[in-house]
TrEMBL record:
Pfam families per record: 2OG-FeII_Oxy, DIOX_N
Keyword Iron among UniProt keywords: yes
Similarity field: Belongs to the iron/ascorbate-dependent oxidoreductase family.
Keywords annotated in UniProt: Iron, Metal-binding, Oxidoreductase
Gene Ontology BP annotations: small molecule biosynthetic process
Transmembrane region(s): none
Lineage: Eukaryota, Fungi, Dikarya, Ascomycota, Pezizomycotina
Domain Fe2OG dioxygenase, residue spans: 160-273
Sections of the chain in a coiled coil: none
InterPro entries referenced in this protein's UniProt entry, alphabetically: DIOX_N (IPR026992), IPNS-like_FE2OG_OXY (IPR044861), IPNS-like_sf (IPR027443), Iron_ascorbate_oxido_reductase (IPR050231), Oxoglu/Fe-dep_dioxygenase_dom (IPR005123)
Top-level taxonomic group: Eukaryota
UniProt GO MF annotations: metal ion binding; oxidoreductase activity
Identification of the protein by name: Fe2OG dioxygenase domain-containing protein
Length: 319
């Protein structure tokens, strides 16, 4: 098998403190162009990643009635959803199930799923540590104080909106005409995505950013799935917050048009500004808006509430 080189830069976080300036440069360059990069030497071991995927698989293997004890709640976007997310770009439900979590959201009991809560929270903390490093670099790069974006996404604050999302795309056959995840940009600030060897399907579209349209008909490039490197991308909120300097680019997940596609599991950690924090870029390109208004407005449109195809957010771009 040929080893396909990922079409985005791999950025090492090794010796972060002493190499911060150099890393900041690399992160900015990637975020201002592809809007995607991978992180290596980030401090989460392959074993820790595999352990979290094992917990995720155990969760999705539960009977539907058990998962339905914590249904997706549009008010806070937490809980379990099954084939219910409609992307404005496709008008169809994504062929997947997912479980959205926050530290203080509803969790499956230890009787239903032993060790899930403790293990997953530990994983979330690891994601927080990595996110803080990247957010510190972006803060400085954008001309804010180093802790500007970190404070705005502080997961210990009661109004925090940052979430972990476990995702399971079911195995399929001859999937032409369906989408595992239709073209979209992420709503929040900074997404950390974990994938597993052999479970390809993610495709990205550098140069096609959220404030244009849905990238329909554009050429997407596969980003092969690998256990270890973290795929990172910029979301709409950080694009607006940076006066469009950092790009929230389109991506999607596909199964094979013909033949079998195995199950795909992915884990996304979505850093999002806190509900009551007012976001505005250093150049004030857009009017100030609270992260809560921005985020909930966009999220609702994807779960059948206030859904309008090609809806345009008055502040910035498409949803
Ligand atoms: O599963 C993936 O690889 C991508 C998921 C994604 O893009 C999302 O949930 O926003
Ligand atoms: Fe996404």
């Amino acid at each position: 098998m040929t080893d396909i080189k990922p079409p985005v830069p791999a950025i090492s976080l090794k010796d972060f403190e002493s190499r911060k300036d150099e890393i900041t440069k690399e992160l900015l360059e990637a975020a201002e162009t592809a809007g995607f990069f991978t992180l290596v030497d980030h401090g989460i071991s392959i074993e820790e990643i595999n352990d979290q995927f094992a917990l995720s698989r155990e969760y999705f293997n539960l009977p539907h009635e058990v998962k339905a004890k914590i249904p997706h709640d549009i008010r806070n976007n937490n809980g379990w959803e099954y084939k219910s997310q409609i992307r404005p770009s496709t008008g169809q439900a994504d062929q997947k199930e997912s479980f959205w979590l926050q530290h203080d959201s509803k969790w499956p009991s230890d009787e239903d799923l032993p060790n899930f809560r403790a293990g997953t929270k530990k994983f979330m903390s690891k994601c927080e540590g990595i996110s803080e490093k990247i957010l510190a670099c972006f803060s400085v790069g954008l001309g804010f104080s180093e802790d500007h974006l970190i404070k705005a996404m502080d997961v210990t604050a009661p109004d925090n909106l940052t979430q972990l999302r476990l995702i399971h795309y079911m195995a399929s056959e001859n999937a032409a005409g369906t989408w595992r995840a239709g073209n979209h940009t992420d709503v929040g600030c900074l997404t950390l995505l974990f994938q597993r060897d052999g479970e390809d399907g993610l495709e990205i579209c550098p140069g096609r950013e959220s404030h244009t349209d849905h990238a329909i008909g554009d050429t997407f490039t596969p980003l092969p799935a690998k256990t270890g490197p973290i795929v990172v991308n910029i979301g709409d909120m950080l694009m607006a917050w940076s006066d469009d300097r950092l790009k929230a680019n389109f991506h999607r997940v596909r199964a094979k048009d013909t033949g079998k596609s195995p199950d795909r599991y992915s884990i996304a950690y979505f850093n999002t500004g806190r509900k009551n924090v007012v976001m505005q870029g250093p150049l004030k390109k857009y009017p100030p808006i609270t992260c809560g208004d921005y985020f909930l407005g966009k999220t609702k449109s994807q779960f059948g509430h206030n859904f309008k195809k090609n809806q345009v957010n008055p502040t910035v771009g498409t949803v």
